[in-house]
Amino acid sequence: MKNTFGNNVSITLFGESHGTAVGAVVDGFPAGVKVNEEFIAHQLDLRRPFGKISTSRQETDKFEILSGVFEGKTTGTPICIIIPNENTQSKEYSKTYGKARPGHADYTAFCKYNGCEDYRGGGHFSGRITAGLVAAGAIAIDLLSQKGIEIGTHISKCAGVEDSKFTDFENDINILSNKKIPVLNEEKSVEIIKNIEKIAEEGDSVGGILETAVIGLPVGVGEPWFDSVESVLSHALFAIPAVKGVEFGAGFSCADMLGSQMNDNFVLEDNKIITKTNNNGGINGGITNGMPVVFRCAVKPTPSISKEQETVDFINNENTSLSVKGRHDPCIVHRARVVVDSIAALVLCDLLSQKFGTDWLGEV
Amino acid sequence: MKNTFGNNVSITLFGESHGTAVGAVVDGFPAGVKVNEEFIAHQLDLRRPFGKISTSRQETDKFEILSGVFEGKTTGTPICIIIPNENTQSKEYSKTYGKARPGHADYTAFCKYNGCEDYRGGGHFSGRITAGLVAAGAIAIDLLSQKGIEIGTHISKCAGVEDSKFTDFENDINILSNKKIPVLNEEKSVEIIKNIEKIAEEGDSVGGILETAVIGLPVGVGEPWFDSVESVLSHALFAIPAVKGVEFGAGFSCADMLGSQMNDNFVLEDNKIITKTNNNGGINGGITNGMPVVFRCAVKPTPSISKEQETVDFINNENTSLSVKGRHDPCIVHRARVVVDSIAALVLCDLLSQKFGTDWLGEV
Amino acid sequence: MKNTFGNNVSITLFGESHGTAVGAVVDGFPAGVKVNEEFIAHQLDLRRPFGKISTSRQETDKFEILSGVFEGKTTGTPICIIIPNENTQSKEYSKTYGKARPGHADYTAFCKYNGCEDYRGGGHFSGRITAGLVAAGAIAIDLLSQKGIEIGTHISKCAGVEDSKFTDFENDINILSNKKIPVLNEEKSVEIIKNIEKIAEEGDSVGGILETAVIGLPVGVGEPWFDSVESVLSHALFAIPAVKGVEFGAGFSCADMLGSQMNDNFVLEDNKIITKTNNNGGINGGITNGMPVVFRCAVKPTPSISKEQETVDFINNENTSLSVKGRHDPCIVHRARVVVDSIAALVLCDLLSQKFGTDWLGEV
Amino acid sequence: MKNTFGNNVSITLFGESHGTAVGAVVDGFPAGVKVNEEFIAHQLDLRRPFGKISTSRQETDKFEILSGVFEGKTTGTPICIIIPNENTQSKEYSKTYGKARPGHADYTAFCKYNGCEDYRGGGHFSGRITAGLVAAGAIAIDLLSQKGIEIGTHISKCAGVEDSKFTDFENDINILSNKKIPVLNEEKSVEIIKNIEKIAEEGDSVGGILETAVIGLPVGVGEPWFDSVESVLSHALFAIPAVKGVEFGAGFSCADMLGSQMNDNFVLEDNKIITKTNNNGGINGGITNGMPVVFRCAVKPTPSISKEQETVDFINNENTSLSVKGRHDPCIVHRARVVVDSIAALVLCDLLSQKFGTDWLGEV
User: Fold this and answer.
1) How many CA atoms, within 13 angstroms, populate the side-chain half-sphere of residue D89?
2) A12, A14, A28 member nearest C66 (Cβ)
3) ipTM higher than threshold 0.85
4) Global pTM?
């Protein structure tokens, strides 16, 4: 289904960038889970624009839980969270309607919806819609954490800067959870900001790679074939408009490896079966093997740039050019991090619920 | 759902490597489409082992259509195709049961199914299950072709050899359709085979990258968010057990690009809106923009290698070592090609059916 | 999925009786359909309590469209409509928590949600949740009407009074659309009200039967087996908490009929194939045959009655008795009518969309 | 999805009456459940024609399990069962193609599938397809039974004869499981057969009502709204082509009841909460309350009758008449019983799996 994902635990998204509100409905979430509104606010804060390397559109992101929470705990029935839009400047957009912003969904939305799309600020295609996802995801992240499952994402690469690799997963994930620029090597943060600022000054934007690790998952989660952990995670991750690639474990580098290098040998350590390497990213045959689930998302450069670009006016059917004014981010890699975490958490709640049941999921 | 994928047009897979038969059920396929049994056989043939670079297990892959086809045409009701297993040598497997083959699903299946899994030849996790997918996909490929939509996949990289890039999509796709080693630069085929044979002699295996192009798709196919073309294609592609990465257009390389490089400028040519570059792989905001849909899959080296590997015996709970005997492929990249094409065709039939209706899909 | 129904066109419900708001998200609805807010208000008005035969809880039912509508027309992306709760008197409920109201979901919700359910006014199990459904359904009813498909429901039987049968479908449906007590024979309306009032005075409640007709559907809508028109309609209709029976055409009376009586003979009239009788309710093999689709829902008496009833206090684990105070309806049959129409409209939009495509559905 | 139903545990049907085979795929069934092939054969036997009151088409119903069972136990991966068609006499049907058999899907299938449907013996619309469902359902019935959940169905009414009501559920269900004519009052069996035979002699057919009870279900199974126990059961039950009505507990008779009569008062007995009556059929708010789940299905008279009927030849577009020759049943009520049981078992496995998890479901 278009804006709904998940089986036992599902999420439905709605809203437009310049509409009344964006939001999400989470269904199938277990009853009795404490809802930490501060943590939701914290997660929304991680998604918000930050300093000069982000858009100047500032939303307070005050969220409102319309349903599904009673006396501070989940009721087991649908949780609807909305985040009203406040700081919208829609005029800018109506003036340029018809001029397809390259890399954006302006033209495809026009074709798909026969010119009835809400084009203001990208409408339903805007990254703004992820605010609902992040609010919903916060509840899932919180629940998983109480079950010993932790998720962390760092900027593996951005604006020409490469971060260190995960070494101590538990500690690394913990440290990342409060960083606005989520890097493992803190020095890289300064470098990344500097480079983005420089690119922003040139009216350009830049992309990057996010790397995520999930620890604490039991063995045996996921399904063969169409509900493989890779399948459902990638399905949800590619919903993020900027994501153009998803890989697990060694990912694309496996193309240059031999079987003897790629295979992760099993070994019994302290009476626990682990693998010596983790090129399969914690997943064998679509099913978790107890090792950290590790994946990477390629995040493309923000398509909104102030540099002049050639394009087509699809209303007047003529070639033209465009400099995207509005307010936009020169980079969204750091902001996308919490969206990735949220998606991963929701997907994993669903897979765990299928295996162990909704009742089990709520036992915290 | 675990072994079922798709909404309007869906596929369900079943079978085990050494069971009676593998097969697939396609539901929601339109009525009145001619079923070309020769083409199904042709596609199954492309999936079959080939020469010294493949397993010596030889299946005739005689398929049988149990339902959904009447007087040579689809009836509109579920098409069940089975492919009996013939050349099975199961004894080899029971002897080593408990010794987890690294890179395989032996251990995760054991944990997930409490030791009740059919372990022979990888059981339900075997690539053998893709035979049903290929047979079903052949019907979808055939239908799309009659609607002017063509799919082609080549080996972008394998065993250290890089193929040329797509230049003339229509012609390239046409040429690829009959090649056992699907490369655009025919000379590379010899090189690839030679390298694989060498690796095979050393008891090892090798992976690669498959690149796929789909041409002829109308603008406006796909949905925002969870049914983006990227989401549903990646979901289905990651069902292939060997796939560890999926990227669209520029994919992971977008991390090193600026917005001004990544954005695909629109231009009006011969009264048709196209993009000058195709870094977004024919997809904006999850929806087709009329350019070729281009994606790549990372295929890991076959985990079955005869080289000795350390592992764990999960029955006796002890460290041990293993040399995978059986019959196995030193490389499956070329064989996986037709699986990728099949999956893409089935997914696209589904998306087209959602937009235009089942009735339209059947008008050929 | 629990609170989501539909494939191409889907609806998701959320909210609790005494929470902030109830609402619905409609996804997959076509773009470009004019949204008639007056009609939505009209439909909500039909659902609202009426005179002495209804609860004294009066909600203004001011709805707010949060997304999916732009410049008065649908955008093709999710439509979220909320209806804030205003007139809530929750204290009454906390006092009696634990005393399971017979016929209600108090006890089952307590067991299912481990005592974390929002029990106030029935929480998520309250008929109040249908307000969101009615608002969403209004848009679907409006769209179908523009495509020549009309839906009408009358009270077939209530409080011992039997209404006339449909005779002139088009005219009957038209007349019903504005009636607060939807009967075909207007005289019956007075009788029904009188009887309900009498029952109410005795602190009791009463049920009834609603009969629905849908005209203008093309032949060939629906699917064999699990997406038969009967299957999907009944699935959605049984979501209404008070519905305990659903039948199509002759329904349960077919048990007393011979095949020669039940079979609907076909006849060619004015070059159109129709049936002489309509015992199959316009559906053969799960698929519409062009005749009016006719079905009936059994609506049970409102379980909230002020008469004293024996019950169990599941908190204190003891037998007790209860007289439901609060504000409640002695009869909801007339109010449920518009819920049935809404559900039918949403389900039919989905089935039509599967056959003809989302694009076709939006062509009005 | 058209021919697939269920979330965690799903079933997919395929096949045509005169095709190669009919069958079913069950997915999501837990691993490690013993598969009792004799019980499957027994259930198929209950579905088979019986004596003079059934069609003379005799199928041996030899089933073959193609996948999902290994060493006598389920593997946890898809179970595909096929039942080859043997005793087909297709010629009869091609001669009369175009003459729509009243009450059958001939005309609607022709319209839906553009004349490409397999019309022989009703094709995919034939009751023959339920053989696959029964084979699959047998495994589910067996599993539930091992978990203390028993399902039994009797003929509540048929051919003018009314059976007794359930009194001792456990004993009644046990007795019914081996009866070809499933009645609680054995004397009624003779009467029913006699009446059907008489109707058959006149070239006519007759319908009836099946009543089902499920005991042993825990409290708290099912969901509010769209996955209410009533919703999902009715969805699946209406897939049976002959079913035209489904009701739970008091069902349609609730229209004539007062709230004080319909409400089931709770009472604590032996420290267990039960209800004094069961007018709600064991379901409150869509969720099981621990009482027997009781429902009834209206089964229409078999549409195939040898009496001459008026109809339309939709190929030649003219009024005509028809006497259905072929081989057909004057009554299918008794044969439909095991289909109802099978559907109920599969649906309940799914609901239980959602609540308690796949792993729990397999613990027997």
Assistant:
1) 10
2) A14
3) yes
4) 0.97
